[in-house]
Specification:
Blueprint (H helix, E strand, L loop, with lengths): L1 H22 L16 E13 L3 E5 L7 H5 L10 E4 L4 E15 L2 E24 L2 E25 L4 E22 L3 E3 L6 E3 L3 E26 L2 E18 L1 E2 L4 E2 L3 E19 L1
Antiparallel strand pairs: 1-4, 1-14, 2-3, 2-14, 4-5, 5-6, 6-7, 7-10, 8-9, 9-13, 10-11, 10-12, 11-14
Amino acid sequence: MRVFLSAIVAVAALQGGAALAADMPVKAPVVPPAVASWTGFYVGINGGVGWGDRSARWSSGDTAGTTFLNIAFLSLLNGPDRSYDQRPDAVGVLGGLQAGYNQQWGRFLVGFEADIQASGIKGSEATTGALGGSAITARTEQQLDWFGTARGRVGMLLWDQRILAYATGGLAFGHTEVTGDASMSNPFFIGAPPSDFNCPTAGLCISGSRSKTAAGWTAGGGAEMIVAGNVRLKVEYLHIDLGSESFRVVPVPPASGGGVINLRFNNSFDVVRAGLNFGF
């Protein structure tokens, strides 16, 4: 009888404990905040700086080396190939708009982006040397007025898929303006026809320029981070190559003369910019 009563008490105690445990609140599991998907269209704004990284080259079409360029530029490091290099050191700010589309697969992303930029990238270089009783100053100037790109993007998502690190590359296009001229400090005359040169007054003697819209290529990389919902901050580097641009530099009246003087620019630029993208 005593054993039977003890068993009843034990069962009652177990049932009471189970009921009490069932009434206690259960702590909910911690769920990390959801990360917005990168898949979809986006638009954005950007701004940054850019600079030119190639030279301008003066050269002579006269293999005999008797033209004004060959003689006058002898004091400006005229080399055995009858050429002289200058580096305009173009630099400036830029800003514009971009739009694109992303497709996310797990931690990987592919996409396409196009942008259009206003550019203040501009620079010049002047070099002065002695020529007889006069000084000759050669000057080149390079400017990138605007440019755009159309690029693919391939990247990987990091830090709970909140940061995208990517490589990018594709088509580049833009409008460039380049000029070159040479001035004399005193009136100048040299040579005999057909390669003689006469600059009867001090000042500008020869000049040339060209502007064009060119197409080329671009490549670079960057990083983009979700800052709030579908708002993303990005930083990016691009190298942009719009090819070369050549033209003849000719006498400016009242100057006159013969010979062939060529000037060639390499329109190559580097860009660093930051921007905001808005997904939808």
